[in-house]
Amino acid sequence: MDFKEVPPAFLGSPVAFPVVLSGFGKRSRTFHTGIDVRTKGAQKAKVFASGDGRVIFAGKMRGYGRTVLVRHKGGYKTRYAHLKNIKVKTGARLGKGDLVGWMGKTGRASAIHLHFEVIHPSGKFIDPRPIFY
Known about the structure:
Mean pLDDT: 93
Number of helices: 1
Shape: globular
């Protein structure tokens, strides 16, 4: 599942002042397909579009809770999961930095945070850590 590619340069952090809670990659019996981040004032923390794109899904997704999926140039996608509230609708065009929603703990989340994924056009997951460092 791991794909050895750096996220494209046009993507940036979806949150201000991120603190990484859980990294990308193999866990004991599972594979974490993204990165979990939190920020100051997480209860009211805003989540922003990582890059220009179009919302291809905005709603509830099993395990992820309230989720937004955005398609970017070149077929890359980003997923924003466990949101408390979603600000955008499917089909909306987003610019980098536009408000997507608010950090939450929906789905299988046990604490307020954002689960963030970068998906290669082939469908493989890319480690998003370079975006945050």
